[in-house]
Design brief:
Layout lengths: L1 H36 L6 H12 L3 H11 L6 H23 L2 H46 L4 H11 L3 H14 L4 H11 L4 H16 L3 H25 L1 H24 L1 H5 L6 H24 L6
């Protein structure tokens, strides 16, 4: 039975590694595509900036990106302390409820994952807000450019007129441009900070290409705003068409935990068999792995905003 548990653990580890390398491969592919649209490797500085985030696959850089995109202070140590505290709380709760080492372990794992899940939710909400307010910011930017302002002054004016998380991102860009950073480098850094948003990446590519090759910036931005409005209308229509499917997915994903909780209340000895050493632990790990995989799969299928 020990061999079975070890095999299941290795399988879960290999699956997590596969997800990690798949995501990193997609990130590198996006960087390479952006480099090609910017003219290949003609500028060593641009290549370095584009590769900076995607090649820094360490835990520290990943946590910095997660905290920054969630709008939290980029301090890893306080967040690690929060994870440790929730791990201890989860372990104590698991020990009190289950009364076994396995229950303590499961509670500790749940407490450890909870802050990360919450932080990911905040990041998603913040990115959604930025994506919704981007067309309005582009309209303000267009008006400022039509008034004869240079790009740094136009960005500063747009940051003053906006509110919410996009204001802070534009303010960072305006400060960098005011301190002497070039427009190309400043916008590339903006694209790195918000690399999960396709609309922001398109905006960055348009500005950088026009800065390098010349062109009518106002006309291109107006076309981009029109495309964003059409994309927003399509997203709302898609959300309405998939509302029933998303509600069904939530019900299906919520049934197993609810059923497990009701069973634990009605027949604790029945659920307690899963916490015993031996076959119970193996079955529990397999069930949790399949459940998490199913939730991620269903979410990917029915979520129209999965790109954020």
């Amino acid at each position: 039975m020990t061999a079975v548990v070890v095999t299941i653990g290795l399988a879960v580890f290999c699956m997590l590694q596969a997800f990690y390398w798949f995501g990193r491969g997609r990130s590198s592919a996006r960087a390479n595509a952006l480099l090609e649209r910017l003219g290949g490797a003609s500028s060593v500085q641009d290549v370095t900036l584009l590769k900076q985030v995607n090649e820094a696959g360490t835990f520290r850089s990943s946590m910095h990106d997660l905290l920054r995109q969630a709008g939290e202070p980029e301090q890893i140590f306080p967040f690690v302390v929060k994870i440790i505290n929730w791990t201890l709380i989860g372990g104590v709760v698991g020990l009190v409820i289950g009364g076994s080492v396995v229950a303590l372990t499961l509670g500790a794992i749940g407490g450890c994952v909870l802050p990360l899940v919450r932080l990911s939710q905040r990041r998603r909400q913040r990115l959604v807000q930025i994506e919704k307010t981007l067309p309005e910011a582009l309209q303000v930017l267009i008006i400022s450019l039509k008034s004869g302002h240079a790009m740094p002054k136009a960005i500063a004016t747009t940051a003053e007129e906006m509110s919410g998380p996009l204001r802070s991102e534009l303010q960072i860009l305006a400060d960098e441009l005011r301190l002497g950073r070039s427009v190309e480098v400043g916008f590339l850094r903006l694209g790195q900070r918000l690399e999960r948003l396709q609309t922001v990446r398109t905006f960055v590519v348009a500005v950088v290409v026009l800065q390098q090759t010349g062109g009518n910036m106002v006309e291109v931005l107006e076309q981009l705003v029109e495309a964003l409005h059409e994309q927003s209308q399509y997203a709302r229509k898609l959300a309405a068409m998939t509302a029933e499917g998303r509600m069904s997915a939530r019900i299906l994903c919520g049934l197993p935990p609810v059923f497990l909780g009701l069973t634990a209340l009605a027949a604790p000895e029945y659920v307690g068999g899963l916490l015993n050493a031996g076959a119970g632990i193996g079955i529990l790990f397999v069930a949790i792995t399949l459940y998490v995989s199913g939730v991620l799969w269903v979410r990917r299928l029915v979520d129209p905003g999965g790109g954020v």
